[in-house]
Structure prediction request, 122 residues.
Amino acid sequence: MPKDYPRTRRVAEQIQRELAEIIRQEMKDPRIGMITLTGVEVSPDFSHAKIFFTHLGESRQTAESLSGLQHAAGFLRSHLAHRLKLYAVPELHFIYDTSVERGVRLSSLIDQAISEDKRHTS
Prediction:
């Protein structure tokens, strides 16, 4: 692990908190919708940040949300610059987080297997 890992993690957590607030309070783009930021990964030199998000909705909404976030990246970055005490604010890269969908799908499969098992043993 890099020597500055704790600082990188703190910066990532602060970016996640601040972005969530900016998106909730400042964003007016209807394409973004109701999203949840699930994580942030910041490069060791703080030049790039991967912002992971998810939402409840259809797959069509995913593309629209991603498009809206990418379009607003400059706006979000400039708002972050006013809130963060960093020499340079990282470039923002938005990525849809599929782990929530995967978790729901796996949970559903487990529930289905348990109910089938109960039917066969009864």
User: Anything to note?
Assistant: Helices lie at 5-26, 59-71, 73-83, 99-121. The longest strand covers residues 35-42.
